[in-house]
Amino acid sequence: MSRNPEVPKSQNPNIDIQIIATPLLPQQCIDFIQDGGAGGQAVFIGTVRNQTKGNKVIRLEFESYIPMAIKELRKIAEAVFDKWDAFKIAIHHRVGVLEVGEIAVVIAVSTPHRKAAFEACEYAIDTLKETVPIWKKEVFENGEVWVAAHP
Amino acid sequence: MKIKLIAFGIAKDILNTQKMELDFEQEGLNIHYLKEHLLSNFPEFAKLRSLAFAVNDEYQEDDFLLNDRDEIVIIPPVSGG
């Protein structure tokens, strides 16, 4: 289902992957995925929640092993093209200190029809959460925790 | 064989450093050996949900053979997104 089977993977112009330390701009991702053939665009925005299990979150701190994270995000993007009929995908993730309400990740994908857009977008965020070397620490009033580190 | 460990997230806290050099007398060591070495010297690693390793920016399995001067990244449970 890849629309660009001959393009070297590192140069696929339909994939926009960024890991940056400055505030994310969803509109940039939406602008990137525009395609005249697309009937549907799905955008996932992950934001910093103000509480976890009743504990008030002060802030989140994200860190990443960036070269490998970019590689793993690229694998996810390529898997999206393999599994669905997608035109373009953008995945932007932030690192550093994020306050409550700020955007940690944006995933945007365009497809001919809406079902693929929803499915591809969900696949991308679900897989990101499993494989990409990015870690977040939740900072509470009374302590801090590396999320999901312990069973 | 000398190898360099690079740690992130809670692994960095457990080692109390981001970078650590290890010098092993034996040759032909693999990821499994390294994992056991870390577990016995830093028991906190055993409490983690998972512990993975990357060499050359790829996840590597237990049987991956290490070479002198490899840089090995310790990947504790990831939590992006």
Features:
heterodimer; A: 151 residues; alpha+beta; Aldehyde Oxidoreductase, domain 3; 4-stranded mixed β-sheet; 3 helices; elongated; B: 81 residues; Ubiquitin-like (UB roll); 2 helices
Q: Can you describe what's shown?
A:
The complex is a heterodimer of chains A (151) and B (81). With 151 residues, chain A is an alpha+beta fold. Chain A has one domain (11-141): Aldehyde Oxidoreductase, domain 3 (Alpha-Beta Complex). Chain A has three helices and nine strands. In chain A, the strands form two sheets. In chain A, strands 3, 4, 6, 8 and 9 form a five-stranded antiparallel beta sheet that branches. In chain A, strands 1-5-7-2 form a four-stranded mixed beta sheet, with helices on both faces. In chain A, a hairpin with a 2-residue loop joins strand 8 (134-140) and strand 9 (143-146). In chain A, helix 2 packs antiparallel against helix 3 (114-131). Chain B is of the alpha+beta class and 81 residues long. Chain B has a single domain, classed as Roll (Ubiquitin-like (UB roll)). Chain B is 22% helix and 28% strand. Chain B contains two helices and five strands. Chain B has helices at residues 9-15, 31-41, and strands at residues 2-7, 19-23, 52-55, 58-60, 71-75. Chain B has a five-stranded mixed beta sheet with strand order 2-1-5-3-4. The longest helix of chain B has 11 residues, at 31-41. The relative contact order of chain B is 0.30.
Radius of gyration of chain A: 16 Å
The number of helical elements of chain B comes to 2
What CATH calls the topology of chain B is Ubiquitin-like (UB roll)
Shape of chain A: elongated
In CATH terms, the superfamily of chain A is Molybdopterin biosynthesis MoaE subunit
How would the global form of chain B be characterised? globular
Query: Looking across the biggest beta sheet of chain B, what order are the strands in?
Result: 2-1-5-3-4
Top-tier CATH class of chain A: Alpha Beta
Estimate the helix proportion of chain B, in percent. 10-25%
- The helix/strand order of chain B is EHEHEEE
Q: Biggest interface, and residues per chain?
A: A-B, 29 and 19 residues
For this entry, what is the oligomeric state of its chains?
A: heterodimer
Task: Tell me how many strands of chain A there are.
Answer: 9
